[in-house]
Amino acid sequence: GMLLPVVNAVATEPPAPAAELDPVGIAKFTQRMPLAPVLQPYLTTSTTSYYRMNLKEASKEIVPGLTTRLRTFNGSFPGPVIKAESGRRVVVRQTNSLSVPTSIHLHGAHVPQDSDGSPMDLIEPDGGTKTYTYPNTQPHANLWFHDHAHHMESENVFRGMTGTYVLTDDIERRLRLPSGAYDIPVSLRDARFAQNGELIYEMGDFRKRNVILANGKSWPYFEVAARKYRFRLTNTANQRFFALRLADGSELVQIGTDGGLLPSPYRTDTVAISPGERADVVIDFSRYPVGTTIELVNKDVAPFESADLVGKVIQFRVTRTAHDDSVVPDTLRTLPPLPAASVNRSVDMKMDETGSPGSQAYINGKTYDMDRIDTEIAYGATEIWTVKNSNQFAPHNFHMHLVQFRVLERNGQPVTSGPETGLKDTVPLKPGETVKVQATFTGYRGTYVYHCHLFDHGAMGMMANMRIS
Ligand code: C2O
Ligand code: CU
Q: Which residues form the Plastocyanin-like domain (predicted)?
């Protein structure tokens, strides 16, 4: 009786994991932070810009001296930047040259269901194609795109499938915010590597993803002039929360969030972004003499983590002076009025906290079923959703497709200042927290998902369908 099961267990054991790279040995601040390439349209008409992208494997140097195989948009990591304008359509034809299915979601966008990139709307591997149409009928916003293929999104994103989509409009353009070479998208995330440079993906292993990447390089430096810069930060990590500060504690000016500019600038020493969230931040380097180096640090470090690793992000080097006629005005925009809500709902987010492989995650007690409609919404309705993180240890966040929402309350307190006063599509929930959000469902009918944006949790089932009809 004893021998056979043991033999079987050995026979079915997965191959030994590749030897892990110790991040302590990775040189910090020796590589320059690159800029993500701006994607050019192949055709432009009076109404529409046409793009194409090829989803393919590519190898990049992320950690100095090592080569890493990635799943990419067009071979770039992070993926390219699309620059779009409200009122002008963007059409993107995606060709999937990977050997896995994909679905490309434009996060934060107001789009018809067939261009939403939902988990069930797959592009076949090995040459499948799909054309996504983005009407850009919403105001300016800090959007981004990433894979969303059901059960695959977590690994596909971890292996590189993210990109930036900057939607601008006249309201934003009228302001004289830092622009051009001083307006810089930054993709922040973490990763985990083998000694041979390959990524190690293991669902839910957030404790071991302790190499911090900015625009696809581990702990880069970035040379700046002594003037104001605008950084459009996207948290593209699967599970990591960032709380970003300048090492000397000096001021960061948060001017925008997921759905574009805040009503007025928020002056702070810490900018927090959970996975999927964006922060639009102005840093004024004119306070530093040329020759200064100043680190952007992360204060969201768990007790089991090392601040020497995950507490370090980017080193800024002030290398020159430069003319600066940019301005951060006291009023940035007027938000749309909040209509009265007619429906209230509750959303409960919870997962198994054992940490065991095969853990399940739930919304209102159910794991995701792509064939089940969880929430029926009347077209045009304004609704208030009370969202709770019922876990004791696990953080979550809450993301809805199709809409930008407003955060009315956090833990029973009205939200009256700070970054959550803006338009949001993703909102963090630490263990035990509750938020009340309000959304109006107009523009398109169809089935869209809402979910936890910690990709590993979404892939474990913390996702649900809403149907607007
Ligand atoms: Cu960025 Cu459904 O996600
Ligand atoms: Cu979660």
A: 65-169, 226-287, 347-467
